[in-house]
Amino acid sequence: MTFFSAGAFVLSLASTRYAQGAIAADNARQAWDEKSAQAALAAARAVARSHRPTAIVDGAPVARLVIPKIDLDEIVLEGVDAEALNAGPA
Prior knowledge:
Layout: H1 2-48, E1 61-67, E2 72-77, H2 82-87
Antiparallel strand pairs: 1-2
């Protein structure tokens, strides 16, 4: 009985961690899509004035990785902490 309880507990921990990563990946994809929608406006404004680099926050989406041959479409996050790596490539 103890082994079944321990197994169920470990399985629930792994499932929770996987779900948190999936939610973080979905949030990153949504943030990337919003950022892409504003890119045209930002590009037009950048032509009119000088561009100042901005600091990138850990966990923020910074790129989109698309490899059609293996059907991969992921958002790359800034940072290498456990949360960013759990959500996808960082």
